[in-house]
Specification:
- This protein is of the alpha+beta class.
- The chain has two domains: 89 residues, no CATH class; 134 residues, Cupredoxins -  blue copper proteins (Immunoglobulin-like), CATH 2.60.40.
- It is 36% helix and 26% strand.
- The protein has a six-stranded mixed beta sheet, with no helix packed on it.
- A hairpin with a 4-residue loop joins β3 and β4.
- α1 packs antiparallel against α2.
- The longest helix has 34 residues.
- The radius of gyration is 25 Å and the shape is elongated.
- It starts with a helix and ends in a 12-residue tail after the last helix.
Length: 256
């Protein structure tokens, strides 16, 4: 009996530690908030189910460990129907919860292609991108740097993205050579960029500060050093930054 209690106690402590470790995550953006919210919903369902299954396994292992005359499990249609319905409800919950995040406009991108690049709305230049009510910038990946352009202010930055806080932002991502993937972990922003195509990313950042962006699509020998600084400024600071850097262009550092 004491061994069974110790086993159950160990399982409870482990699951409690796992839940506590996830409680320290703070969302810095709408994107991150949606993703973390989904993770918590699934975690709160998975933890009690996992605990229940483990307890049943421990109980069966202890109770029947010395059974010299095992018998087949008796048929129980009511029980079988119950767990089938319960499983269906759980799967339905997971599907609805996941779908609600996938259709979130900050999670699902809009992809547009240039002429000859495939299906979709053809555009000839950045000027032909559809208008939005968001603050807009274009991020262009190439081996092995990121180029950020602010079309309405004629600003070009290398390996740096400057975003306003508490404002909808649209990032149009494209590439010059191969597939690259822009990933800002703390903001929950991640999207592949394709040669000749423009893919829309939307975000709304709560917390000003400095974050890191990396490429998560293997793109050659310099992939590991293809990163960028992401600076989120308050509205007045962002406006001042735009004015100060109007008509400026920063060049990428030479690759070692």
């Amino acid at each position: 009996m004491s061994r069974r209690r110790r086993t159950i106690g160990t399982v409870l402590v482990t699951l409690a530690a796992l839940l506590a470790s996830t409680g320290s995550v703070v969302a810095q953006s709408v994107n991150r908030d949606a993703i973390v919210g989904l993770e918590y919903q699934l975690l709160y369902v998975a933890l009690p189910l996992s605990l229940f299954v483990v307890m049943i396994l421990v109980y069966a292992a202890v109770k029947f460990r010395d059974n010299d005359d095992p018998q087949p499990t008796a048929e129980d249609p009511a029980l079988e129907i119950t767990w089938t319905i319960a499983t269906a409800i759980i799967l339905l919950f997971v599907g609805v919860a996941g779908y609600s995040v996938l259709v979130n406009p900050y999670v699902s991108p809009t992809q547009i292609t240039e002429p000859g690049a495939g299906s979709g709305e053809a555009i000839e230049s950045v000027d032909d991108l559809p208008e939005t009510d968001d603050e807009e910038l274009v991020v262009r990946g190439y081996q092995w740097h990121w180029e950020t352009t602010y079309p309405s202010h004629n600003i070009t930055m290398e390996d740096e993205l400057v975003l306003p806080a508490n404002q909808d932002v649209t990032i149009w991502i494209t590439t010059e050579d191969v597939i690259h993937s822009l990933f800002i972990p703390d903001l929950g922003v991640k999207q592949d960029g394709y040669p000749g195509e423009y893919t829309r990313i939307r975000t709304f950042v709560y917390e000003p500060g400095e974050y890191e962006a990396v490429c998560t699509e293997f793109c050659g020998v310099g992939h590991s050093r293809m990163d960028a600084d992401v600076v989120v400024l308050e509205q007045d600071e962002y406006e001042a930054w735009l004015e100060e850097n109007e008509d400026s262009r920063a060049t990428a550092p030479d690759d070692p």
